[in-house]
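As the work plan foresaw, the team has encoded backbone shapes as discrete tokens. One protein thus recorded appears below exactly as we store it.

:::
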Amino acid sequence: QVQLVESGGGLVQAGGSLRLSCAASGIIFSNYAMAWYRQAPGKQRDLVASITVRGNTNYADSLKGRFTISRDNGKNMVYLQMNSLKPEDTAVYYCKAYFWREYWGQGTQVTVSS
């Protein structure tokens, strides 16, 4: 059974930081590219950042320089470090694993107050 479990979300003031974590199980983690998406109320789910099996990263243009994605294949974990948070970063953040198929986590709420 494949599971992706996000954690680390919460309420933070504008300008603050959060580190999201995603724990994967039931897959050969090192075979999967990983990504973070986010979905704000009433909006579509958008890509935040992705990381390949080799560690190459890609970011949404608007988030470059503030967010950093990383992975630890030994721990089956992917992380999203979010700095200088803004109220518009408020959303549910989802972890995705993709290879020959994709899997999603249940999401973690991030709320940034002004």
